[in-house]
Amino acid sequence: MLRSALPIALVTAALAAAPSTASALDEQGYWAFADRMQTRIDRYWDDRGGWYPGMGSGAHADVLLTYAVAARRGHEGPARNDRRARRLVDLLVSSPPFVEKPPHSAPQAHAPGFVSTVDSTNGFQHVVVDAEVIDGLRHAWLARRELGLSGAQADAIADRIHRTALGSFFRYPAIRLNQINWYALVYAANATVTGSPRLLRHDLRLQIERFVARAHGTATVAGNLGPGLRFNYLPHFRPGASMNTDSAEYANITSSFTREYPQARRAGMRAPSPAVRRLLRQWLMRVLAGYWTHGGYVNWDTGFGFRRWHQSKKLGLSQLALLGIASAPGLAPHPSAPAWAKWMLDRGFDFYERQLERNGDVPPGLFFGVHKLPQDIGSARLALARMSSNAARAVAAGLGSARAKEPPPLYAFDPDTGRLAITTADYNTAIVPSSRGAYPYGGIDLARLYDGRQEVVAGIGGRPPAAFGLLVRDISGRRSFATQRSDRGRLWLTQAPHGVRARTSAWTGRAYAGPFQDLRAAGIARGGGWTGRTSHRFTAFFVQTTWSLKRTGARGRATADVLFPSWGSDAQVTAVMRSGATRPVGDVRIPLSRIAELVVHSRNGAYVVLPRRRPRGATVHLLRARPQSSAPLAGPTLAVQIARASRTRSVFFSARYAPVERERAA
After folding, report:
1. Distance between CA 560 and CA 586 in Å, rounded?
2. FRET label pair with 539: which of 15, 65, 411, 490, CA 20 to 30 Å apart?
3. What global pTM score does this model have?
């Protein structure tokens, strides 16, 4: 039971999230993970056909990559199967998936190249398909002796990669939007199997220079990066397009060009100019601090909305950025950034395995119960193959002997959209005032709250009442105002290492991102004759928020609550009374004056709410929240009622809150 003495400890480590169970992985640790994942993948193998039914060419290539790296490193275990690797080589160099005529007239149809299927030439074409298949074939070629490949097999690999790389679809000035990473991988693979570094030395440098030259847009064209260096998925569209609100997954994917950067420099590519390197390092800091959490997961908001949000297959692609930052010290945004990236990568493997086990050992296509746009089994199995192969990629990149270091608290702020991302060893969250209609959640309060192990303790992106913030209802119970409504307010930094005076339209070529100790932000929202203000303080251990509600034209009596959501239909809220006794919170209102603190017990995590400023007459009760598209597992919401059927003109409430171990909370 939580005692009343614990509020003091809330400020320090007593309310820290559960300590990490995933320490830095060495090579043996990476192989242990890959072995466990490959054991699951092997369930789908058809030995007679020599393939994995229901899995596309990219997934087959990821399995091949794992086998190849394992053979090259002398690993013995399920992640190594030389015979099967030889069969996969024969499969991938054949048609399909390799094609010498474009299969259809789709936007990315090209030849020579690869299609997404291994049993039909009617599969779709995309740069990710070529790159993923070529990555697997590249590693098989490197391990050709250990795998026992014939000379004909090795030659076929080199031929398919070389002809694809020389095709007009990949040679500069070809580009898919701004995604230079695919081209970097193809150029690097070509240099590996042919010994000719020209594309890697020449074309890659041009790709990098063009990306940076087009980073800053205009009034009518977004450019590659927005103010604060957030990512524009459609750089040729207007800056305010919904798809350009940001894209955590594609920003990571694009920044993974860093995986090939060291090889390019060794091959003789001239270093970009100092100005280009400065901007790239600033951007990579924004990537690391703004898109990743200490729990090893993506701090995820995307202009694609449900078309990408929490897709498991995109986690594996996004991890390529961590692999690149961890292994490309020449572009490191901070001396410790490679060690931070490895820390996050390693914990990401632990995160995925927990989700896999929680899903009954069946690969999940989506995380956290999101189901608005379901993923098929092929996508789920692709995610599994990508996670396994990323462990092998970590070994190949030398991360098995590299140092990992827990990152300090990190933040990233985008002045145009107001998005503020926060991650610490104990919790992670984000505030997203503007979604531009790309996704249904947002406002000037926390959009979500996870603990340090990436367990949901409050929610992943709900709307009132399944959300943090002020909720005002009129005398009939209808909502008249809420601070958690997207595109109805703005947020700015009031105390931070960078970005306090950042203007919403200013493009300075720098990221407002990096380590912090005590960061503060303020927000304002108006509507229905009310003005709500939030003042947030973020430290390594807790969040503290003050809510201010002022009547600015609204008439009649109104009820105002400050909301603290939960996760899971079985979630509960416990009040720890000043006497030390505990009491469940339900529909009956409990006077706040009698309460020392409140504990929200969600399905897989918990957090404590410590009231700091208590309005006279305030009470505590629960509001029932229905499942939402962006909060499919919403639980009951703790509501601190700061005004009830009142004509009050203004009211304030302040609380400090942070995740806590479930065992301690119980």
Report:
1. 18
2. 490
3. 0.95
